[in-house]
Amino acid sequence: GAGVSQTPSNKVTEKGKYVELRCDPISGHTALYWYRQSLGQGPEFLIYFQGTGAADDSGLPNDRFFAVRPEGSVSTLKIQRTERGDSAVYLCASSGTPNTGELFFGEGSRLTVL
Amino acid sequence: EDKVVQSPLSLVVHEGDTVTLNCSYEVTNFRSLLWYKQEKKAPTFLFMLTSSGIEKKSGRLSSILDKKELFSILNITATQTGDSAVYLCAVNTHNTDKLIFGTGTRLQVFP
Asked: B10 touching A, CB under 8 A?
């Protein structure tokens, strides 16, 4: 597609449930990033893929969070045993030019954990 | 720990005013500083700055970097209601390809 696509745009779940958030990057972009943004805060880095491999996962808060990108295109962020503190907007971004910082962001997935 | 601090947190102006947004940073192995505009959900890229003293300009927006004093400013002249948004500053380092964001400055422009 023309831009970064994220689904679902909104997800409401109950504490303890499992959720998956999907990101479809711009075609041809090899770098893909996941960020999390809480209200009134800037985006917080979670994980970065270069191709299929996670080049930097230092931002994942704990082992309940996991992300994959099996074919080097679409990525899925998986959250197990969700907690209320996981509520945030999860932003995905892609880049076709490595090491520039110029990222193209999707509209985000708003996760609400009740 | 790497950090990016933006000020002010919030700014309310009238159309036609000029505003200056500030971003200071403390990071190891600095590579570049970037400005993004976030109107609703998706941040959109404005500028990338790597060298001190060289102004980047796009229409009514301009930005400059001071690598000695570790800060950048984003200027918007003749503001319009469409400039209302959160302006995010981010820093990129040589250590990794991730961006470290500040909390943003919320700009509201009233007619």
From this structure: no
Using a CB–CB cutoff of 8 Å, tell me whether A104 touches chain B: yes
Per residue in A23-39, is it b (16+ CB within 10 Å) or e — as a string? bbbbeebbbbbbbbbee
* pLDDT, tens digit only, all 111 positions of chain B: 889 999 999 999 999 999 999 999 999 889 999 999 999 889 999 999 998 888 999 999 999 999 999 999 999 999 999 999 999 999 998 877 889 999 999 999 999
Q: Name the residue among B4, B48, B103 with its Cβ closest to that of A101.
A: B48
Nearest to B34 among A40, A55, A101 (CB): A101
**What's the distance, Cα to Cα, between the start and end of chain A in Å?**
33
CATH homologous superfamily, domain A5-96: Immunoglobulins (2.60.40.10)
Contacts of residues A48-53 at CB distance under 8 Å and 24 or more positions apart, as own/partner, are: A48/B96, A48/B97, A48/B98, A49/A75, A50/A98, A50/B97
Domains of chain B: 3-110 (2.60.40.10)
The CA distance from A5 to A22, in Å, is 8
Contact A77, A21 (CB under 8 A): yes
